[in-house]
Automatic annotation (TrEMBL):
<protein>
    <submittedName>
        <fullName>1,3-beta-galactosyl-N-acetylhexosamine phosphorylase</fullName>
    </submittedName>
</protein>
<dbReference type="Pfam" id="PF17386">
    <property type="entry name" value="LBP_C"/>
</dbReference>
<dbReference type="InterPro" id="IPR035363">
    <property type="entry name" value="LBP_M"/>
</dbReference>
<dbReference type="InterPro" id="IPR012711">
    <property type="entry name" value="Lacto-N-biose_phosphorylase"/>
</dbReference>
<feature type="domain" description="Lacto-N-biose phosphorylase central">
    <location>
        <begin position="444"/>
        <end position="663"/>
    </location>
</feature>
<dbReference type="InterPro" id="IPR035080">
    <property type="entry name" value="Lact_bio_phlase-like_N"/>
</dbReference>
<dbReference type="Pfam" id="PF09508">
    <property type="entry name" value="Lact_bio_phlase"/>
</dbReference>
<dbReference type="InterPro" id="IPR013783">
    <property type="entry name" value="Ig-like_fold"/>
</dbReference>
<dbReference type="InterPro" id="IPR029062">
    <property type="entry name" value="Class_I_gatase-like"/>
</dbReference>
<feature type="domain" description="Lacto-N-biose phosphorylase-like N-terminal TIM barrel">
    <location>
        <begin position="9"/>
        <end position="441"/>
    </location>
</feature>
<dbReference type="GO" id="GO:0004645">
    <property type="term" value="F:1,4-alpha-oligoglucan phosphorylase activity"/>
</dbReference>
<feature type="domain" description="Lacto-N-biose phosphorylase C-terminal">
    <location>
        <begin position="669"/>
        <end position="721"/>
    </location>
</feature>
<dbReference type="Pfam" id="PF17385">
    <property type="entry name" value="LBP_M"/>
</dbReference>
<dbReference type="InterPro" id="IPR035356">
    <property type="entry name" value="LBP_C"/>
</dbReference>
<dbReference type="InterPro" id="IPR013780">
    <property type="entry name" value="Glyco_hydro_b"/>
</dbReference>
Length: 723
């Protein structure tokens, strides 16, 4: 049982080789009740009793090279595409492994290449007939006959995975030298499938010291392919292209009634990135794999329970097929999910997961030598990580926190250890005070995109919350929402088309670049969909568009909700039409709290107001950057971009209340200082005022009746007050 007090429990720490004595010091200092191992190190038997729970990492489909080498044709596979190669004469030879790392992947010629490979004329999009190309296994080349000069060609080929990508990353980062490269094997093969379950029983019998099996993770790794320099070539944390195999493709055809082409997974070399509007074939494949994975993972969980242990899933690495917001996940019966916390968005992604007994967040920094080296101060990253994630914890906490890596590295930094000990104490205080109660939410906000609930809190991610120039402008929307006093859900275009818009939704947010899954692309050409959304706004709904919302060129508009938004974007086709409306308002409800110039991130150019009544809130260098518009009984707000900052979080909050026609209700459980927020737990009869900065702050705090009181907060302080 977890002890619920303020100095002990709800914390997991790692350890490593010959470090038990020092580990016990840290256990005491942090009040940890669980100890875990790390990739590359196994816990010694004497660890039993050192903490109330011992976690052991378990790899279902890697870490057993004896089996992998003995069953080399049952290794996992992936679909890959060559570079685009230009034909300058009537035949063309393509080196298919050019640009790939031959220690990670190897072409599969064991299965019929003419059945599973595909050669495409990328200039025309036509598939080259199979009798017009041949594979030379010795030279690892494909030769194409009767090519069209000056056309580009690619080869889509099935390859075996020789090295697990996560172990490869850890191997390179930690300089593991001659440590064996772990080969991943595929549960789709009957022989390997049987072995996986037998091995699970055997491992549990041999490890009585382990209380929690930390599956890292199950069968298929997200798409992570390295180039010939052993550096990342392609990464998509949601990618399914490395869950493919000859067996899976044949089984898919039996189950779904049609044959998948390689192109359905290669997708022009985009590999169905989460930014792509998903095709029916790709969604069918996702569903197919999720059914298989969840069914077989349930068997592993049942075996774990038979042995009296807990089953915990790491949300990462080989997590494909176990998406926690998918329709099969809750049937698995997992006890817990643990994931890496990069910010407030990823915290909520973990803490909201349904169907498990508890959730755990692994905080940063990871105890690896790329952070813990002489001259660096890891406390800086730890402080930023905690303050950022804490906003989200106040709305929906994980049940446990922890750290990963090698404790011997962190031990050399006493200032860091002291700081995270305070973090652990503060987390326990927050958790106890919230006591499982939902905080006050003034509005219900729905984020609309192609993925909906399946990718809750996961929009615009590439490699699990890493920063990219093209996405920080939109990641800020989720990051702001993660700590705001609103109820958040994620809905898809199909949800609206099939079920309408739920009556409890106050505001819909559509954010993203044109053509992406997050803006919607051609989904906005669906007449039934567009009319349902327009009707909903017109009858009193609130709509917020960020970037290029509802964007697809059709009917004389680029924004298909341009009439509701009151703005559109000039693409160069309507330059002959004068645009008269450029007058910025002196002030507006949405920007009442603004203290400095607004950061719109990468922003947008050439957005303009369609009518005089469009309320232009921000306008610069001929570009409309923020506006509002009345549409029947409803309202819409347009924002050119919203990277995360305290000020932008406040702009989004006020935008939501304005769009919902509920401005008068804003100042309930509210702080007027943008660096502060209020979370009220009415059932617990407590509220908290949070300083999200590392500086002293003065603010007026409004209670549930809108009565204000001045308050002074120390840097990063949380002040708890009885209602």
């Amino acid at each position: 049982m977890i002890k619920d007090n303020l100095k002990h429990g709800r914390v997991t720490i790692p350890t490593d080789n010959d470090f038990i004595k020092e580990t016990m010091e840290i256990v005491e200092k942090l009040g940890a009740d669980a100890i875990r191992d790390c990739d590359g190190f196994k816990l010694p038997k004497e660890i039993k009793g050192a903490a109330e729970k011992i976690y052991s990492t378990y790899f279902v489909a890697r870490g057993d090279n004896e089996w992998a080498n003995a069953n080399i044709k049952e290794l996992q596979q992936t679909y890959l595409m060559t570079n685009h190669i230009l034909a300058t004469k009537d035949s063309l030879t393509i080196k298919i492994m050019e640009g790939y790392f031959d220690q990670q992947v190897q072409p599969d010629s064991y299965h019929d290449v003419k059945e599973f490979w595909e050669v495409i004329d990328r200039t025309t999009g036509e598939v080259v007939e199979i009798d017009k190309w041949d594979y030379n296994e010795e030279n690892v080349t494909v030769t194409i006959k009767e090519t069209k000069k000056w056309h580009e060609y690619t080869v889509s080929f099935l390859a075996y995975c020789l090295w697990d990508p996560t172990q490869m990353y850890n191997h390179i980062t930690n300089n593991w030298g001659d440590k064996p490269h772990e080969m991943p094997f595929d549960a789709r093969n009957a022989k390997t499938n049987k072995y996986i379950f037998e091995a699970m029983h055997k491992w549990l019998d041999e490890h009585p010291e382990t209380d929690v099996i930390r599956f890292t993770t199950f069968f298929y790794h997200f798409t992570l392919v390295f180039n010939n320099l052993a550096k990342e070539k392609y990464v998509d944390w949601f990618g399914y292209s490395s869950s493919v195999s000859a067996e899976a493709l044949r089984e898919f055809e039996k189950e779904k009634g049609y044959k998948l082409r390689p192109e359905h997974l290669i997708d022009n070399g985009y590999y169905n990135s989460t930014f792509r509007v998903p095709t029916k074939e790709y969604l069918d494949y996702i569903d197919f794999q999720q059914q298989f994975v969840s069914k077989n993972v349930k068997k592993l969980v049942d075996i774990t329970h038979e042995h009296g242990r807990e089953a915990m899933m790491f949300l990462g690495d080989n997590w494909i097929g176990t998406e926690p917001y998918g329709k099969y996940f809750e049937n698995i019966g997992l006890d817990a999910v643990v994931g890496s916390v990069g910010n407030g968005t990823t915290l909520r992604m973990i803490s909201e997961i349904p169907g498990v007994k508890y959730t755990e967040g692994r905080f940063l920094p990871y105890f690896f030598p790329d952070t813990f080296y002489e001259g660096n101060d890891p406390t800086i990253e730890a402080r930023d990580n905690w303050i950022t994630a804490r906003r989200a914890i106040m709305r929906k906490p994980v049940d446990r926190i922890g750290y990963g890596g090698y404790l011997s590295l962190a031990y050399k930094f006493p200032k860091f250890v002291e700081y995270i000990s305070r973090v652990c104490d503060e987390f326990r205080l927050i958790y106890n005070n919230i006591n499982g109660n939902k905080p006050y939410c003034g509005l219900k906000v729905a984020v609309l995109n192609c993925w909906g609930k399946l990718r809750s809190w996961q929009t615009h991610m590439v490699a699990h919350a890493l920063w990219y120039k093209q996405i920080y402008t939109y990641l800020g929307v989720n990051e702001a929402l993660s700590g705001m006093s609103v109820d958040v859900s994620f809905i898809s275009f199909d949800d609206i088309k099939n079920n309408g818009i739920s009556s409890d939704i106050d505001v819909i947010i559509n954010a993203g670049d044109a053509g992406t899954a997050f803006s919607g692309g051609e989904k906005w050409l669906d007449i039934e969909l567009i009319t349902k959304i327009k009707e909903w706004i017109y009858n009193g709904g609130g709509f917020i568009g960020v970037g290029e919302p509802s964007a697809v060129l059709n009917g004389g508009h680029f924004f298909q909700l341009s009439d509701a938004l009151g703005v559109d974007k000039e693409l160069g086709f309507s330059l002959s039409t004068d645009k008269y409306f450029k007058t910025k308002l002196d002030n507006h409800f949405i920007t009442d709290d603004i203290t400095e110039s607004i950061d719109f991130g990468e922003s947008q150019k050439n957005v303009y107001a369609l009518k005089e009544s469009t309320e232009i809130i921000s306008y610069k260098d001929g570009n409309l950057l923020m506006s509002a518009n009345s549409y029947g009984k409803g309202r819409s707000v347009y924002i050119a971009g919203l990277p995360y900052s305290p000020q932008n979080s406040r702009i989004l909050l006020r935008s939501c209340y304005y769009a919902a026609n509920k401005e008068s209700q804003l100042k309930k459980w509210y702080a007027d200082n943008i660096n502060c927020e209020v979370s009220a737990y009415l059932e617990s009869k407590k509220y908290a005022v949070i300083n999200n900065s590392n500086e002293n702050q003065e603010t007026i705090v409004y209670d549930g009746n809108g009565i204000g009181e001045k308050m002074f907060l120390a840097p990063a302080e949380i002040r708890w007050i009885e209602i």
